[in-house]
Design goal:
It is a single chain. The protein has two domains: 3-83, Winged helix-like DNA-binding domain superfamily/Winged helix DNA-binding domain (Arc Repressor Mutant, subunit A); 84-324, mj0159-like (Alpha-Beta Plaits). It has helices at residues 3-18, 25-34, 41-53, 69-77, 80-83, 86-97, 121-133, 169-177, 213-219, 225-231, 248-260, 295-302; strands spanning 57-59, 65-67, 108-117, 141-145, 150-151, 154-155, 160-166, 183-193, 196-205, 234-244, 266-269, 285-291, 307-317, 322-323. The longest helix has 16 residues, at 3-18. By secondary structure, the chain is α+β, with helices and mostly antiparallel strands. The strands form four sheets. Strands 13-3-7-4-14 form a five-stranded antiparallel β-sheet. A five-stranded antiparallel β-sheet has the order 9-8-10-12-11. Helix 2 packs across helix 3, helix 6 (86-97) crosses helix 8 (169-177) and helix 7 (121-133) packs across helix 12. It contains twelve helices and 14 strands. The chain is globular.
Length: 324
């Protein structure tokens, strides 16, 4: 099979797998175009017939397609080399789309999308408020999304509620907008003792992974957000980015404005060329560690509530968010 066609088929499989409900050709075409594939709905239908014939997808009437177990196996094994670097490319694209101005509190921010059962909403909101009150959230601003809504190709199924939280990558977009080159480096779990961040325990390099690190650590239940909130010691999600050492003073000033706008969660700022919280940085660079926006959602999961999270989902207007 032609490699270009194969890549299209694999991307369609990935889109179908990402949705919790059957997905139709129109939504798939939308997501494909969003990811850089110039393809129409009619062409998508043809490619879906190929996937059906190979037993990789199954059509459920007018509801759309679902991925089969064989399809999941194929997706896991196919084109791994092509997928390495996909996350960092997505991050860089959303950074460029960020327009938030901390001074005016206007513009677009990057969000994470999480989906919970509607019956768990009341309990979830109490947990979110508890974490936010105790200072370990990236931002107190969220947006509730009704069932049936599609945001950046992610559909909130019937009986579910979507929760948009501000993603910490928004900081990278703010720095970039202010003329500071920034390179997202690691995502990882950060050890906290006596309310102070100590060191990274595990990290995943953004440029070398096919899966968002925060999603990995959350799915493996490697966080201890509620322990950190309740006792001052635990394990939080955080990420590290590098800026030129010569720009660190200006970066600190910009971060100060962001924190005042309640877009912050700074865990540590390093000196040029020196490690920050036990993580190395490149020569001539300075590291900035930020608590991840997904920490408040990780706390929900720790309480036994089933939640599906899509980190670094899309950008939305900050004015659409509400402060808890």
């Amino acid at each position: 099979m032609d490699l270009t066609v194969q890549r299209k088929l694999i991307e369609m499989l990935r889109i179908i797998q990402e949705n919790q409900t059957p997905v139709g050709a129109r939504l798939i075409a939308y997501r494909m175009n969003e990811r850089g594939y110039d393809i129409g709905e009619r062409a998508v239908r043809y490619h879906l017939s190929v996937l059906d014939a190979q037993g990789l997808t199954k059509r459920l009437g007018y509801n759309g397609r679902v991925i089969t177990e064989r399809g999941k196996d194929e997706l896991h094994d196919a084109l791994v080399g092509d997928r390495v670097g996909f996350i960092i490319s997505r991050i860089e694209k959303l950074m460029c789309n960020t327009t938030f101005d901390p001074g005016t509190k206007k513009g677009t921010v990057i969000i994470n999308m999480s989906i919970i059962d509607k019956n768990d909403l009341g309990r979830t909101m109490r947990i979110l408020k508890h974490v936010i009150r105790n200072g370990y959230s990236f931002s107190p601003y969220i947006k509730l999304i009704e069932e049936g809504t599609v945001t950046s190709g992610i559909e909130v199924p019937e009986g579910k509620t979507g929760i948009a939280t501000v993603c910490s990558t928004t900081i990278d977009g703010i720095l970039l907008k202010n003329g500071i080159p920034v390179s997202p480096k690691y995502g990882g779990t950060l050890k906290v003792e006596n309310k102070k961040p100590v060191c990274f325990e595990d990290v995943i390099v953004y440029s070398g992974t096919t899966i968002d690190p925060m999603r990995v650590f959350m799915s493996k239940k490697m966080t201890r957000v509620l322990d950190t909130v309740n006792t001052g010691s635990g394990r939080l999600l955080a990420n590290l980015r590098e800026v030129p050492g010569s720009a660190i003073s200006e970066a600190k000033e910009i971060l100060g404005y962001a924190v005042k706008a309640r877009i912050g969660g700074i865990a540590g700022i390093g000196e040029p060329g020196k490690p920050v919280l036990n993580s190395a940085v490149d020569t001539g660079k300075a590291g900035i560690v930020i608590y991840a926006g997904t920490n408040i959602i990780a706390a929900v999961s720790e309480m036994g509530i089933k939640v599906t999270t899509y980190p670094i989902s899309t950008t939305i207007d900050f004015e659409d968010l509400k402060k808890l």
